[in-house]
Amino acid sequence: MTTSAGLLVPHRRRAAYGHRVGRAIFRTLYDGRAIHSHRVPAEGPVLLVANHAAFLDGPFVFSLAPRPVTFLVKQEAFRGVFGMVVRGAGQIPIDRTTGDRAALAAALAVLARGDTVGIFPEGTRRDGDVDGVNHGAAWIALRSGAPIVPVAVLGTRVAGASTDSWPRPRTPLTVDFGEPFHLHPDLAVPGRDRLRRASDELRQALASHVRRARVDNGSSS
């Protein structure tokens, strides 16, 4: 299946296969655990939004989510051997320098067939506090009407380490799923302002969940 912009929509079997392999890896190589997985709806479209502080965040959430996930992944990752793995796992390349409507349309197509899409709304690796977000996640949520599940990723970045660092094997890693919610746009507000307000609502919800998860799990990262 391709979108009107010509971007191929990954088949759901790819994400399902990658999900099984990734789960085995993270529960063997690391002490990976998922908290509150039951909060992710078992059926129908779901949009996972997660904080982003380290390289392993994407593979970790992808692997320990209760359902297979198709993530929007920076297009630079689709190179070489790693790029073959990412593409084989059914992920969608996105150009972060533009609005990349083709990638967003592919994400909408995945949701329209009742599957799960994942996105890091911060757009790049930061400190994981969710101080700012891009508009893509809110745009997808508003267009699709899918419930949003905030996701806190903990332990993937050691204090003082760079965003490219990897934790040592058997390090405890946690992914904590929050309560699903919907955005409630004010239809009386012009479209651009509506998207901006929706993005801020999403940012606040995700940042609040990350703070609670850090307290509940005794983590500072």
Mean pLDDT: 90
Uncertain spans, ≥5 residues at pLDDT below 50?
A: none
- What is the top-level CATH class? Alpha Beta
Number of spatially distinct domains: 1
Rg for CA atoms: 16 Å
User: How far do the termini sit from each other?
Assistant: 39 Å
Describe it for me?
The protein has 221 residues and is α/β, with parallel strands linked by helices. It has a single domain (12-217), classed as Glycerol-3-phosphate (1)-acyltransferase. Helices cover 36% and strands 16% of the residues. The protein contains six helices and seven strands, in the order αββαβαβαβαββα. The protein has helices at 12-26, 57-64, 80-88, 101-112, 136-144, 191-217, and strands at residues 31-35, 46-50, 69-74, 92-94, 116-119, 148-154, 172-177. The protein has a seven-stranded mixed beta sheet, sandwiched between helices. α3 (80-88) links the parallel β3 (69-74) and β4. It starts with 11 loop residues before the first helix and ends with a helix.
